[in-house]
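# step 3/5: fold
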Amino acid sequence: MSTDFQQARIALGRRLRELRAEGGLTGRQLAERLGWTQSKVSKLETGRQTASHVDLNAWADGVGKPEAAVELSARLRAFESGHRSWRRQLAAGHKPVQDALTAEHNRSSTMRAWEGAMIVGILQTADYARHIFNAYVDLHQSPRDVEDAVRARIQRQESLYRPGRKYHIIMWEAALRALVCPAAVMAAQLDRLSGVIGLDTVSLGIVPFEASIKLPAANGFWIHDERLVIVEDWHAELWLDQPENVALYLRVWEMLADSAVYGSDAHKVIARCRRSLGAV
């Protein structure tokens, strides 16, 4: 969980505790009034549990300050916008998530990406993307709008050919070897990567297994115009726009980029990954 998110949750908890104290209630009394356990009140006040908007409305009523509900909900929305749980995002399927990402790509002119686990979406073939989406649908038990999501992802790739755009993409060799799809699909995907090298809008670097790396190959992320970082985790996406966070991820990206190979050397890494698949 991001430090920003946790600190915001703790701050909201402090405000809840202040309102309870102003209402002259103990935690036990408030819990009884709301029909909650005392532990829920405690967890909300200490930032160990995220309140829902329903919880906040009930709290405001319970402490006799219904007018505080608007303020509390505004606080919750402020940090929810940076911490986008997959459960909420995928309630309507994967296509809306893809559309939101496309909007950010359309707003951006220079993008940097790091990915150590799979091929980045902007370079995926339709078949590879289909296997990725199916896996995440199964994981999150979300609506199965896979074909719509694939089309949205492939449509976003049109930005690779627009003048004025620049994609600086780095991937670990592991992403080129992880068989998250059948070997034949992976072979076609690797051929696609080879074809991208040379595009004037794309700088593709591969970090070989044998390269020394300055940092562990952790979560994948995108940096948009040095104004926004989007980090993907199992439970949520983090959308980070505070300057110090953007600066941190830029340093991470640059340190990883120092270990990457490009051009003909990148071709060689892709080719050896392709050969490892055998005759497919």
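# step 4/5: annotate
The CA atoms of residues 145 and 251 lie 36 Å apart.
# step 5/5: archive (pending)
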